[in-house]
Write a structure and sequence with these properties.
Layout lengths: L1 H18 L5 H8 L8 H20 L21 H17 L3 H8 L4 H16 L6
Helix pairs in contact: 1-5, 2-4, 5-6
Length: 135
């Protein structure tokens, strides 16, 4: 049941990204182009995601245990440290340059094109090369 629910949630997330056109790198790049062809639609998507997450967390934490069993896994590390800042900067720069982040990149690959696959290849290479860097 967990695998099926994970698949269903992933497909629903991908459909949402596709409907909101977040799989189109031009949408992201235009959002970052404040002085030019600015497109504020990403703010609506982010605001909707934030509201949905807030409601979801409220509902989930009213429960003693997760619906599909196990325990809630809450991050215990709360410090804003150097690796977090550097990783966030790398993520942001990559997102701004490519117009993709992992979710939309994978969703975009499902509709075809070379750019999403190039992004996924670069992302995979980056994740693999991280194992050689000491934090």
């Amino acid at each position: 049941m967990r695998i099926f629910s994970s698949l269903l949630i992933g497909v629903l997330f991908g459909i949402g990204l596709t409907i909101s056109q977040m799989i189109n790198p031009e949408k992201i790049i235009n959002f970052l182009d404040i002085a030019g062809n600015w497109d504020p639609s990403l703010l609506v998507v982010m605001g909707s995601a934030l509201l949905t997450t807030m409601i979801g967390y409220r509902l989930a934490f009213r429960r003693k245990d997760p619906v599909l069993g196990g325990v809630f896994q809450i991050p215990t590390k709360t410090a804003i440290d150097r690796p977090l800042v550097i990783g966030s900067a790398i993520f942001g720069i990559g997102w701004g340059l490519a117009g993709f982040c992992p979710g939309p990149g994978i969703s975009a690959a499902s509709v075809g094109g070379v750019m999403p696959w190039a992004f996924i290849g670069a992302m995979t290479l980056g994740m693999w090369s991280r194992s050689f860097v000491k934090a």
